[in-house]
Amino acid sequence: MKALLTNIILSSYLFSIGGIIIFNDGTTIEGNIKSVSLEAINIIPMGLTFAEDIRIENVDSLKLDDGNILVENSNVVYLYLNGEFLEPTRTSNEKIIENDYEMEYVLVPNWSINVYTGHPIFGAKSFEEYDDWTFLNGFSVGSPIGIFAGDFFMNVIFEFARYNFKQKNSLNGQSFGGSALQLGISPGFFVGAASISLSACTGAYQTEGQKWKTGFIAGGSIDIPFGPFLIDRYGDTEIIESLEEYLESIELRITTRSNLIQKPDGATGWLDAGISIGYEF
Q1: What are the tens digits of pLDDT across the range 182-208?
Q2: What is the pTM of this model?
Q3: CA separation (Å) from 18 to 8, 14, 67, 151, 194?
Q4: List of domains in the chain
Q5: Contact at 8 Å (CB) between 147 and 154?
Q6: DSSP 3-state assignment of 153?
Q7: In the 8-state DSSP scheme, what is residue 93?
Q8: What is the rounded CA–CA span in Å between residue 176 and residue 170?
Q9: 167-178 residue pLDDT tens
Q10: Pairwise CA distance, residues 59 & 229, whole Å
């Protein structure tokens, strides 16, 4: 009877349920819990769209958003399988993971698209002749090509950007800018639900006379899971609820980048700051 009452009470949290995993070392992961077996927890981390298995022996506790505890001191208090809560006894319906190797939390490679806009905040001495600074705009693609280990990642990125600077105090002065095509890498690591990433790119840039020159970009960003924030704050509104599936994968990035570009008479560069909206799929 006790098990039956427990199942009835907990059945109101069927299917995807919010919770937070606390690892043995004190680090945490928050997300949607898909299942809990005697061997592993299946979770979609906040800000991501894919599920991951985490071995029970690596977990200190699992607490649901409503305060219920499913795992305590690395012991499973309740199973969560096929949308049902069960007492931790092995049954024929339980999904058992038979892997012989150690499974830990790892990042799964995925694609992402990002739209960037920024404005120069500091220019090199050779850049001061361009006194009419305008916004830069870019579109980048993050690929699943790279290294993904624990909280660390480093993947290959591609970017198309537009920039244009003018000399408003010199009628005979040429503008400087055009398109840019870049290829590079983006290493970073997760800190809870957010992440800190760097980027290093090189490619071809249009300069005076629409000639293509080599350039380099190095930057850094803080990635905030903006979509999940909207869901948590305004999830009961009709528009947010209807778009929840897509909002889960949206990130807001606060970014700064240094730019070094060749000119016919040397090189110039600037430091810009801006924001980027990203979507993972």
Answers
A1: 999 999 988 877 789 999 999 999 876
A2: 0.58
A3: 19, 11, 10, 21, 17
A4: 2-86 (2.30.30.100), 112-280 (2.40.160.20)
A5: yes
A6: strand
A7: T
A8: 13
A9: 877 666 677 788
A10: 25
